[in-house]
Amino acid sequence: MRKFDTKVQHLKYKVLREVARLAWADKLLENLLDIPKTLVPGKEATMRCCVYKERAILSERVKIAMGGDPNNHNVIEVIEIACDECPVGGYEVTNACRGCLANRCEDVCKFGAISFDQNHVAHIDKTKCKECGACAKVCPFTAIVSRKRPCQNACKVKAITMNADKSAKIDNSKCIQCGACVYTCPFGAIVDKSYMVNTIDILKKSERAGKGGNYKVFAVVAPSISSQFSYAKLGQVITGLKQLGFHDVIEAALGADMVAMAEARELSEKGLLTSSCCPAFVQYIKSNFPSLVEHISHNMSPMAVLAKYIKEITPNAKVVFIGPCTAKKAEAQLEEVKPYVDAVLTFEELQALFDSRDLDLSTLDEGVLDNASYFGRIFARSGGLTDAAAEAMKEQGIDFEIKPVVCDGIEACRVALLKLSKGLLDGNFVEGMACIGGCIGGAGCLTHGEKSKAEVDKYGKEAYEKTISDAISILK
Amino acid sequence: MLFVQVCVGSSCHLKGSQDIVELLQKAVEEYHIDDDVVLSGSFCIGKCNRIGVTVQINDDVHVGVTRDNFREFFKKNILDEIKNEGK
After folding, report:
1. Residue A1 predicted with pLDDT over 60
2. Of A310, A368, A465, the CB nearest to B10
3. Which chain B residues are Cβ-neighbours of A248 within 8 angstroms?
4. Which residue of B has its CA nearest to A312?
5. Would you say the pTM of this structure is higher than 0.80?
6. CA distance readout (Å), A225 to A42, A147, A163
């Protein structure tokens, strides 16, 4: 059964799993230098030029798996020696150009950047080229390609540039920690820092571990979990979490229900709102559209709202959020969220945790997970938050016509925010999610696919409560 | 003063925490004991039962509270307790 989309994810997972194994056994500090050799034992290199480089990169991965560089506040880090220094030339004509007679490339270029040599082969004048890609689209031989780094292509906030030595460099003032580059880099050279070791430490000292700990650890799981761990049943994942040492597992979707109610009220009072659930979207507004900050919903994200609630009603509780998101790792470090969320894990890291304890999910009994409504659960996919806010209006009897603008992916968000900043947006509620498809497209997902949305909707429909009011009535 | 916490963890939730919360709220109103009882929720109390909901009253944990046995439970563990406290 395939657990990951790519081999890069699998490699990252193997490092996390080894680090976790040692951490559980209290042997991490003595043995961490052995991990690279455990993973690359042989004499033959399988990934890079030689086993020594492979091991050197693995040592860097071990470091990031243990929390990364403490002097870098960004949760996304570049492993410089892992960066393959991909070409950055932009559009280029390759030797597939046959020197045809049609010259569509020349016709379509608005900037006069295309010329031909004596063999009729096209050339691009880089001083005139604007990198629009029109020539590449019309070439019948697909002879024109864009030599752009995958990381730069993925980074829609243009935070990735190059160091003098050509390795990728992240501009922390622009980065929104969405993790798109992490998932995209084909060499696995950009990685999100892991707080897995902290989590293991929290679990080891908890009440459940039976060594005199006096606190309970709650796992708050994002609704996108329904599209993950597809080789087992959701109930088995819950049992697995409890076997790891979590006292209870609660749906972040319950926090989403709470947020939907409050956000609907806020929207009707303010008349214009941008959503605050996606930390990367919020950060994007803060760094790129400072004039729109006032419109960001004042509600904290479902993660933070629920974690706060758990801590209010349970003395000494600790909360670990588990989701698809790298930006949540940054959100948990914000001053206003820090007191409530003790650690953030991705689904990738959770898979490593399960396997570090040799838990075979598919053989476990099925636990239950039910705290939230259909509407809280569909927050995981683009459009869900809007549906929930509209439902919350209805349930609270608020007479307000919600005109939603649903955007997933930073490019779509940018368009909506640009219009909004110029007063041209036809809408009063901007649901922004940095990842395409919403959270189910998150960088920390094990698998990304077409099926994910259907899985989330199915999970939503299985909710015991059909309305948001039902789901949160219990809390008052 | 009784601190009554109704478990709203997944397991109890599916077995009707919401009903019990409602019944409790109504009963507290009916007997005018809102000064003596503090109602709140709690996530998993760790005593998941095959039937009914777990309710913690001060330090005592009661499992298996259902719609059917609610009246009995309420009288014994809440009303009578309040009377005892009053003595």
Report:
1. no
2. A368
3. 9-10, 43-44, 46
4. B42
5. yes
6. 36, 36, 37
